[in-house]
Amino acid sequence: MIEMLMTAIKFLLITIFSSALGLLFMGIARKVIARIQKRYGPPFYQPYLDVIKLFGKNAITHGFIFDFGSIMALGGVIATLFFIPLGGWYLYSMSGTVILVIYLLAIASLGMAMGTVGSGNPQASLGISRALTQMLGYELPFLVILFGLIYKYQTSSIVGLMEAQAGGFMNWNLFTYPIATIIAFIVLLGMMGKKPFDAMIAPSEIGSGPVVESGGKYLGMMMLQKSITIIIELALFVNLFLGGAENILIFILKMLIVWITATMIGSLYPRFRIEDGVLFYWKWPLMIAIVQVLFIIF
Amino acid sequence: MLTNYIFIPIIAAFFAYLLNKKVKYTGGIITSIISAYLLYQLIGLYGKWSLIQTINFSLMGNNLEFILGNNPLSWLFALMTASAGLLIALFSIKSQEKYDLSSAFNFNFLILIGSIMGVVLAGDFLTLFIFWELMTWTSFYIISGGTKKMAKKSAYRYFILSAVGAYTMLMAIIIIYNQTGSFAIGEAAQYLINLPTGKSLLLMGMMSLPFLTKAGLFPVHIWVKGAHGNAPKEFSPFLSGLMLKVGVYGLLLVFYLLPFFKVMENTISYRGLPILSYIFALFGAITTVTGTILAIRQEDMKKLIAYSSISQMGYILMGISLATPLGITGGLLHMMNHLIFKSAIFLTLAAVIYRTGTTKMYEMGGLIFKMPVTFATYLTAIIALAGIPPTNGFISKWVIYQALIEKGYLFLALAAFFGSIGSFMYVFKPLSTVFLGQLKPQHEKIKEVPFIMQLPMYVLMGLMVLFGVLPGIQMNIITKISSQLGIESVNYSLYTIEGAFGSWNSMIIFNVFTAGFIISLIIFMLAKKSKLVGLLDTYTSGEYMNDAEAYHYAYQYYRPFDRLFDNFAARSLTRAYESLANNLSKVGNALRKGIITGNGQTYAYYTVLFFVILAIAGWII
Question: Staple partner for B314: which of B50, B145, B158, B287, CB 3.0–4.6 Å?
Answer without folding.
Answer: B287
